[in-house]
């Protein structure tokens, strides 16, 4: 169920509760968040390996520690003890700073994520949140966008073609899906009336935004998978094309920092989705009716991380189920589908919001107009796909013309099973192709 208890039962301190803590409370909160993220990363690596192993009828890690829970710690120690190699062609300063630039924003983003209500923290009443601000969601998006610089700089500074291509792919991917992600959050701002994370959680008093803003929720979930470079959108790390992508030349602790940043970002986007669409730390509907203290004390941590783990399981499920997309299909999904649908949905939500506040227009006509708008949007997308396919057909017809290997003056042997067969000529063997090229070269030399 995607329902939450009434806001009257939830403590809502508002923004006034922040900025009043002594320095030692702020320091303990920061350490608390850091430890949670490190332990969560170790658990997520183990969890992903176990779930994928279960899907593929394997055992998974089960030797180090109970149920293999210490396997991630063993992998971290192994990475720390590996030889640290810096390529000669690398820009050493940027090469060393890139992993740090990638991992630091992943930690900072959690500063504005609400983990629970006001609690007694070592004798001091304080919210389970490091800080909050009127534009907290924009702060999260801005900080998360800085992490892409670490990936791009890491690929550029390595002095490797594969790494450079991986960094370029990652930057293009971030730009494409950051737009759709930002548009998906506009509807949340319109309904919540605020960009503060704590106030957005409080605004989901009767219904979670994931239910009443379902298209925005779906668009955000797709965008967050693309934003974190996870399968089936893991094109910057495509091992069949780019060896390892942007971190091909990295080893030891520098590679471990990139690995840490990826898994923290995995938890970060899941926490943002929980906060903005699933009621944050509020208990699911029905629990508050049978247990009055479900939303007080430290119990909301259980509901919050339970929702986060649901998204993490979704990430793992997608990785074990779907193949990697082709790059042009991936970019077309972002620019031709997600962004147009997001724009149309924002117009619909803004219109509904104005009508609900003023109530001067017939809702039946309003729903009909929105339906027509959505149908036109989908139709335009199909028209674009049809024109693309017609262009492909025309290019295919043009390629079926006979192939002249010596048209440009330079001998090019026909492909064994490609254009020569479609052109009507029999494919040449390797010896025949070599003889043709040698004879043409001698003729040009004379």
Automatic annotation (TrEMBL):
InterPro entries: NADH_UbQ_OxRdtase_su1/FPO, NADH_UbQ_OxRdtase_su1_CS. Keywords: Cell membrane, Membrane, NAD, Oxidoreductase, Quinone, Translocase, Transmembrane, Transmembrane helix, Ubiquinone. Its EC number is 7.1.1.-. It holds the Pfam family NADHdh. The chain crosses the membrane at residues 26-47, 93-113, 133-154, 175-195, 207-226, 255-278, 298-318, 330-352, 364-383. GO terms for molecular function: oxidoreductase activity. It comes from the Bacteria. It catalyses: a quinone + NADH + 5 H(+)(in) = a quinol + NAD(+) + 4 H(+)(out). Residues 388-424 are annotated as: Disordered. It is found in: Cell membrane; Membrane. It is a multi-pass membrane protein. Its main location: membrane. It is an enzyme of class 7 (translocase). Residues 390-399 have a biased composition (Acidic residues). The keyword Nucleotide-binding does not apply. PROSITE patterns: COMPLEX1_ND1_1 (PS00667), COMPLEX1_ND1_2 (PS00668). Belongs to the complex I subunit 1 family. NDH-1 is composed of 14 different subunits. Subunits NuoA, H, J, K, L, M, N constitute the membrane sector of the complex. NDH-1 shuttles electrons from NADH, via FMN and iron-sulfur (Fe-S) centers, to quinones in the respiratory chain. The immediate electron acceptor for the enzyme in this species is believed to be ubiquinone. Couples the redox reaction to proton translocation (for every two electrons transferred, four hydrogen ions are translocated across the cytoplasmic membrane), and thus conserves the redox energy in a proton gradient. This subunit may bind ubiquinone. This is NADH-quinone oxidoreductase subunit H. The lineage of its organism: Bacteria, Bacillati, Actinomycetota, Actinomycetes, Propionibacteriales. The gene is nuoH.
């Amino acid at each position: 169920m995607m329902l939450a208890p009434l806001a009257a039962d939830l403590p809502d301190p508002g923004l006034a509760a922040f900025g009043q803590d002594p320095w030692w409370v702020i320091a303990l909160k920061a350490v608390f968040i850091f430890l949670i993220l490190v332990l969560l990363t170790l658990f997520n690596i183990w969890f992903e390996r176990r779930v994928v192993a279960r899907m593929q009828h394997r055992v998974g890690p089960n030797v180090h520690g109970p149920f293999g829970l210490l396997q991630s710690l063993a992998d971290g120690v192994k990475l720390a003890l590996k030889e640290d190699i810096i390529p000669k062609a690398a820009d050493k300063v940027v090469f060393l700073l890139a992993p740090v630039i990638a991992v630091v924003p992943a930690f900072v983003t959690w500063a504005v994520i609400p983990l629970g209500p006001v609690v007694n923290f070592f004798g001091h009443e304080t919210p389970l949140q490091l800080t909050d601000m009127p534009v907290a969601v924009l702060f999260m998006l801005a900080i998360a966008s800085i992490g892409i610089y670490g990936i791009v700089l890491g690929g550029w500074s390595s002095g490797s073609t594969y790494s450079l291509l991986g960094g370029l792919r990652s930057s293009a991917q971030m730009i494409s899906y950051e737009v759709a992600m930002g548009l998906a959050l506009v509807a949340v701002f319109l309904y919540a009336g605020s960009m503060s994370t704590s106030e957005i959680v409080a605004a989901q008093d009767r219904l979670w935004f994931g239910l009443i803003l379902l298209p925005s929720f779906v668009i955000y979930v797709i965008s967050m998978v693309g934003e974190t470079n996870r399968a089936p959108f893991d094109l910057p790390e495509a091992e069949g094309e780019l060896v390892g992508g942007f971190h091909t030349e990295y080893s030891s602790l520098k590679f471990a920092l990139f690995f840490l940043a990826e898994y923290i970002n995995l938890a970060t986007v899941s926490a943002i989705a929980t906060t903005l669409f699933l009621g944050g730390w509020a208990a699911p509907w029905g629990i508050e009716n049978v247990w009055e203290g479900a939303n007080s004390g430290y119990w909301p941590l259980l509901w919050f991380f339970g929702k986060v783990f649901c998204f993490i399981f979704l990430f793992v499920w997608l990785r074990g189920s779907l193949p990697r997309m082709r790059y042009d299909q991936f970019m077309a999904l972002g620019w031709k589908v997600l962004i147009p649908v997001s724009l149309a949905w924002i117009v619909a939500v803004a219109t509904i919001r104005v009508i609900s506040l003023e109530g001067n227009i017939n809702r039946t006509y309003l729903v009909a107009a929105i339906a027509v708008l959505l149908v036109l949007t989908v139709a335009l997308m199909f028209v674009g796909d049809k024109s693309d396919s017609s262009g492909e057909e025309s290019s295919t017809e043009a390629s079926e013309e006979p192939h002249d290997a010596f048209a440009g003056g330079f001998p090019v042997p026909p492909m064994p099973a490609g254009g020569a067969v479609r052109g009507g000529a029999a494919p040449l063997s390797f010896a025949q192709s070599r003889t043709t090229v040698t004879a043409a070269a001698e003729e040009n030399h004379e």
